[in-house]
Amino acid sequence: MSTGYREFPAPLGVRHLVGCLWEQVPERAHEQRVVPDGCVDLIFLAEGELVIAGADTGPRVVALPAGRRSTGLRLRPGAAGAVLGFPASELCDREVEAEAAWGARARELRDRLIATELGERRALLAGVVDACAERDALVVAAAGRLDRPGRSVAAVAAELGVSERTLHRRTVAAVGYGPKVLARVARLRRLVALADGPLARRALEAGYAGQAHMSDEVRRLTGMTPVRFLEDATLTAA
User: Fold this and answer.
1) How far apart, in whole angstroms, are the C-alpha atoms of residue 201 and residue 209?
2) Are 189 and 95 contained in the same domain?
3) What pLDDT, on the 0 to 100 scale, is given for residue 2?
4) Which of 47, 82, 163, 199 could serve as 133's disulfide partner, Cβ 3.0–4.6 Å?
5) Which 8-state DSSP code applies to residue 19?
């Protein structure tokens, strides 16, 4: 069954903030499991509702009606705080109506999306991102280091010349959760990106201490065993 999910590049002016734009039109009604990726999404749902989906620390199941188009904008890890205008932690593990966060601005955007042709909705969503906004440079640098196998939060904080407490506070505000969770998400994404092979080898290559460590973290983040999760897992833009 096709999930009808497609990703599109963000406009050049906001690519430092936006990982991708996306659309989804499922062939059949189904429940889709969403796993953590470190990102926050602005989503115009098929029913005409505009929502903001915060960064997840665990799996979330979303009901998707058949043939209903949803259009989204995915903010890169560390961009949410700057783009939203408030700490990303306020949306961690939550999906809220955009109006609750942005008020009249969100109502106006929703009304324009409803009145806009399907092919123009992605551009309209991208237009709400202020190209002058900047991701927290400390968090971006930390995310790049935590994305490498075998890097601890303590070591990364020391390399960047800050305390673990400072790194945690800045990461929570910019991403939605702390650097330890961000490191787990990075390991999960590395695991998905690896070619097929024995699980024990893939676990080490992804940066886990071993297969048991991998199994524990994959279950925590996805609610599934590694074997079951990797059967259908695909790497989405972030």
Assistant:
1) 11
2) no
3) 65
4) 82
5) E
